[in-house]
Design goal:
It contains 12 helices and 8 strands. It is an alpha/beta fold. The protein has one domain: TIM Barrel (Alpha-Beta Barrel), CATH 3.20.20.70. Strands 2-3-4-5-6-7 form a 6-stranded parallel sheet. Strands 1-8 form a two-stranded parallel ribbon. Helix 2 packs across helix 3, helix 2 runs antiparallel to helix 11 and helix 4 packs parallel to helix 6.
Length: 300
C-alpha cells in the first residue's frame, strides 16, 4: 500500500452540504460555522455558490456570507461560479478561488444545469478566463465519474474528454465525483489507473458520497492510487437533488480520523473540527450521519 505523509482535505459542506437543505440556515449561523471551520486548521473551505438564488435558495445569501466571514491567513475561501453573472458576483465578493462544475454523463448534465456537455464548455471557459484574468485559481468538479443515475455506467474515455477540456481552459485541479455513491474500491483503482496515464495524479481530487457506506474504502483506494486531495463535508452533509437516494457526502471528520490514525497528517485539529460539526448540526436541528459525530454525542 502506498501511503502519503500528508493529505489535503477540502471542506465543501457550506456549499455542497447546505445547497439541498430544506431548512434555511441563517446567515449568522453560516458565518459562525465557517469561522469555526477556519480555526480548525483547514486550508480550504468552499463557502457558497453564486448560482441564481431561485435555483438554490439555501445559498441565496452568498454575497453577505462572504462579506461577514473572518478570513484566516493560509485558508482559501472558494465558491461555485456557474456563469458570467455569477462571475460578477464572485469578483465583487473577493472570492479566493472559482469552482466550475459539470458532469461526465450528458443526461445528468442536462438535468443539473440544463445544457449538454458540449454546450457547457463555452460557459465554463468564459468563467475560467475571467477568473484567471482577475488572478483567481479555478478548480473543476466533474460529477457522475463512477456512474450516472440516468445513463448508468460512464466510460472512462468520456471522463478523460471532459477532464482534457477543463484542463485546457486553465483549471488547475479536477475533483472527481461519485455523485450517487455507486463506486467501489476496485472500480476507483481501475478508473484512476486510466486517468493518471494521461494526467498527473496531483491534478486530481476525489469527492465521494457515502450512500452505500463505501466512501472511506474508496478513499483508501484513492490514496493507494496516488491521490492526496479529498473533498469532505462536515457531518456527512449533502447529496445530489437529481440523483435519488444519493444523500450524504463523505463526512470530513470521519476522513480526518482515518487519515490521522493511519499516520497521515491533515494539519487539522480534530476536536476543533468536531466542535464546528456539532454547531452546524444544532443549527440544522437534525442529527447528521457522520460516525465520529455520533460517537461524540453517544448516538447510534
Amino acid at each position: 500500500m502506498r501511503l502519503p505523509e500528508d493529505v489535503i482535505l477540502k471542506e465543501v459542506g457550506p456549499r455542497d452540504g447546505l445547497q439541498n437543505e430544506k431548512v434555511f440556515i441563517s446567515t449568522e449561523d453560516k458565518v459562525e460555522w465557517i469561522n469555526q471551520l477556519s480555526e480548525s486548521g483547514l486550508s480550504y473551505i468552499e463557502v457558497s455558490s453564486f448560482v441564481h438564488p431561485k435555483w438554490i435558495p439555501a445559498l441565496s445569501d452568498a454575497d453577505e456570507v462572504f462579506s461577514k466571514i473572518t478570513r484566516q491567513p493560509g485558508v482559501t475561501y472558494s465558491a461555485l461560479v456557474p456563469n458570467a453573472k455569477g462571475t460578477e458576483r464572485a469578483l465583487k465578493a473577493n472570492v479566493d478561488e472559482f469552482a466550475v462544475f459539470m458532469s461526465a454523463s450528458d443526461t445528468h448534465n442536462r438535468k443539473n444545469i440544463n445544457k449538454s456537455i458540449e454546450e457547457t464548455f463555452p460557459v465554463l471557459e468564459e468563467v475560467a478566463d475571467e477568473g484567471r484574468k482577475a488572478g483567481k485559481k479555478v478548480r473543476g468538479y466533474v460529477s457522475t465519474v463512477f456512474g450516472c443515475p440516468y445513463d448508468g455506467k460512464v466510460a472512462v474515455s468520456e471522463v478523460k474528454k471532459v477532464c482534457d477540456r477543463l484542463f485546457s481552459m486553465g483549471v488547475y485541479e479536477i475533483s472527481l465525483g461519485d455523485t450517487i455513491g455507486i463506486a467501489n474500491p476496485k472500480q476507483v483503482d481501475e478508473v484512476l489507473r486510466e486517468l493518471v496515464n494521461d494526467f498527473d495524479a496531483d491534478r486530481f481530487a476525489l469527492h465521494f458520497h457515502d450512500t452505500r457506506g463505501l466512501a472511506l474504502a474508496n478513499t483508501l483506494a484513492g490514496l493507494n492510487a496516488g491521490i492526496t486531495t479529498f473533498d469532505g463535508s462536515t457531518g456527512g452533509l449533502g447529496g445530489c437533488p437529481y440523483a435519488k437516494g444519493a444523500s450524504g457526502n463523505a463526512a470530513s471528520e470521519d476522513l480526518i480520523f482515518m487519515f490521522e490514525e493511519m499516520g497521515i497528517n491533515t494539519g487539522i485539529d480534530f476536536n476543533k473540527f468536531l466542535k464546528a460539526a456539532s454547531f452546524i448540526e444544532k443549527a440544522l436541528g437534525k442529527p447528521l450521519p457522520g460516525r465520529q459525530l455520533k460517537l461524540l454525542e453517544g448516538r447510534t
